[in-house]
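Format is sequence with structure; example below:
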Amino acid sequence: MGPVPRLRLLASLLAPAIVVSACSDGGGDGPGSPVPAAGQMQAFVASADLYVGEPQRVAIGLVLGDGNLVSFGSVDFAFSYVGTAAEPTEPQPGPGAVAVYLPTPGTPEGSGGPTVTAPSEGRGVYRADGVVFDRAGFWQVLVSADVEGLGAQRAQTTVAVRDEPALPAPGRPALPTENLTLRSPDAPEAAIDSRAATGDAVPDPELHRWTIARAVEAGRPALVVFSTPVFCVSRFCGPVTEMVEGLAERYADRAVFIHVEIWRDFEAQTINRAAADWLLRDGELTEPWLYLIGADGTIVERWSTLWREDEVAAALEALPPMASA
């Protein structure tokens, strides 16, 4: 596949230390940013492929200098346009939004307002929905939070916004790719699902029976998760893949369910072709992603980083039941 691709992880919320760097296209404060003081809040971008004119989900992770996180409740986002790399400008006020805490599946939702947590106690991001950007370029995001025990806190980061999405997006045709399945000849099981890397069987065979191409050709809606449960630095991939497995059990009459493993060979840093076709752009790849494809082969919805099970379930319930095969 040529040069080794660089994976830009959408949010590296790791324990015990938190290291989240420029997670999305042009986002974050960059590797040269000063290390914050123990009680100082810092913001990191956890969204990718933002573009103008359509309502966007913008997710930000909040971390303190001592490695603890800010979790639970809601915070405020204020966006300001700061121009392009070629033509920077003074900040021009843009939209504002309330961002609600979105936990990693299997971690607590929490109650009350934002509070300081260890990564083992609360790990997630704050997400604002329906943000519309009117210009391509760089946008500053000022995050304001009233954190229990710390009081009013503010942090700032930057997101990049394109004229058009770089990755497949809602309203566009799905790429009819031939992802690996349990029937793929000469495919190591770890290339089908990284959880088989230790020699165990693929743990969720129902997610590895269909290709995207076959679903599109058959006129079947498909829910497709692109993730690498074992090698995902953010530790989001395993939980979100298991979430999709649970949805497959409940909504087998609405869609086919597909997991696309990112790595063909992790040691050799070889990306699976289907993952590269969908997610690799300019030598960089972001993950995890979740796509809902309609029966007509058009992308209905997509989610990056983290998503709520109930919102995906609602999108599946909106589909008509499939005819029997």
User: Anything to note?
Assistant: The chain is about 15% helix and 35% strand. The two ends are 37 Å apart (CA to CA). The first helix runs from residue 189 to 192. The helical segments are 189-192, 212-218, 237-250, 273-279, 309-317.
